[in-house]
Amino acid sequence: MSNNEQNNNANEEKRRQFEEMAQEDRRKKAEFDKKQRELKQSISELTQKIAAEENELRQLEADLAAAETETSEFRRQQQALDDSDKRDETDREHELQRMERELDRFR
Predict the structure, then answer these.
(1) Is residue 16 domain-resident?
(2) Where is this region: Disordered (predicted)?
């Protein structure tokens, strides 16, 4: 085999090896791109899920604040009723005592 043929064979082998490496690089890049797209999709889905959870949390916080306000108002009203009942009871006791005194005067 001549020197020229040896060079041609060596060059052909190098070209074949280079093409195999280039093909492997393209395969790896395609695999990387696919994984990157999947990760971006996962990140997008998680971001949407987080936003939905944050919205739900804000709604729950608003509901809790409304319930606390309602509870506070109920307690205030209940206290006002209790106070009114106590005043009424005191008034009835005073009226009863007054009537007993009047009754005692007539005896």
Answers:
(1) yes
(2) 1-39, 68-107
Q: Per the domain annotation, does 32 fall within a domain?
A: yes
Residue by residue, pLDDT tens for the chain (107 residues) are 789 899 999 999 999 999 999 999 999 999 999 999 999 999 999 999 999 999 999 999 999 999 999 999 999 999 999 999 999 999 999 999 999 999 988 87
How far does CA 41 lie from the centroid of its chain? Answer: 20
Count: domains in the chain: 1
Range of the domain at 40: 1-76
Instruction: Give a yes or no: residue 99 inside a domain.
Output: no
- Predicted TM-score (pTM) of the model is 0.56
